[in-house]
Amino acid sequence: MKPHRGAFNHDRSLSKFDPVTLKNKKLTVSHARKSSKAKGSDWEDRQRLRDQFLGQDINIRRLLESFDHISGLQYFIKDTKSRTMATSRSTFNRLGIRDEKGVIGKAADSYLPRDLAEKYMEDDRKVIETGKPLRNIVEMYMNENGIRDWIITDKFPLYNSKGKIVGLIGTIQSFEARRKVLAHLGPVGKAADYIRENLGEPLMLTDVARHAGFSERQLQRLFHRVFGMTIQKFIIHSRIHRAIYDLIHSDLSLSEISSLYGFGDQSAFSNKFREVTGLTPRGYRLRYLADIIKPSLSSDRNS
């Protein structure tokens, strides 16, 4: 006999009203809440532990020295006026400076060529004024041999305990070191290597693209993404920056340097040089010599 529609189904509904089941459910919920509170309390304890540790008077200079041993990495710390407060030891060798006395407390335009320093300081201002980091800046700097080469820079705002920006901290890596991490630099890096190895030869866009295994259009797009410039402009900048080394470290004439780096004549070399650095090759060489002579005369007077 079928039960009528309002009949109670004991088999299916018994568990809902079983006091033992209800008690177990309450215990489970209670245990979960206690466990959650315990976890929260544990995390708060660990946060306090961290804050206490970082609140100590830690020797920052000793802390930074540990990064001097990381191959291919340079660090720097600057104040809001773009003055260097700390930097890697390898910086001195790259810049031809004896020790930190030539760098600490000085802005980049005091110890670097003006065309490089102005770009660095402009980026410093952006980070300090906006509070936003600048990542993967592809630009020129000195390599281990003191020769201008492409590097990748990261800059981050530096805050004090009250959340105020007091400067910036940054790192420098060689283009070769970073391209191993950034996949999109692969074909660009291959093309850049080809260009740097053939700066004294006629460099055609078709040859560069063929060497990288990309179409000219694809490679141009990637180059602009990485370097912020066309391949043709990259070639000119690479030639000029390599020529700068010979201008200040050799007795080669301007016409010899012009020919060495693939410029058709000295006039074309001078025009492109001025576009990149703001000076003529002759003016750049004279200013460099003047910058060397002034400190030398000053030290002679003080001795």
Structural notes for this entry:
The protein is an alpha+beta fold. The protein has two domains: 60-179, 2-Layer Sandwich (Beta-Lactamase); 185-294, Arc Repressor Mutant, subunit A, CATH 1.10.10.60. It is built from 13 helices and five strands. It has helices at residues 10-17, 19-54, 60-65, 90-95, 114-130, 175-179, 185-197, 205-212, 216-227, 231-249, 254-260, 266-277, 281-302, and strands at residues 73-79, 84-87, 134-142, 148-159, 165-174. It has a five-stranded antiparallel sheet with strand order 2-1-5-4-3. Helix 7 (185-197) packs across helix 8. It is globular and about 90 Å long. The N and C termini lie far apart (121 Å).
Briefly summarize what is shown.
This protein is an alpha+beta fold and 303 residues long.
Molecular shape: globular
Largest sheet: 5 strands, antiparallel
Q: Which homologous superfamily in CATH is the superfamily of the largest domain?
A: PAS domain
Strand order of the largest sheet: 2-1-5-4-3
- CATH top-level class of the largest domain: Alpha Beta
List the domain count as a whole number. 2
From the 3D coordinates, which CATH architecture of the largest domain would you assign? 2-Layer Sandwich
Keywords:
single chain; 303 residues; alpha+beta; Beta-Lactamase; Arc Repressor Mutant, subunit A; 13 helices; 5 strands; 56% helix; disordered C terminus
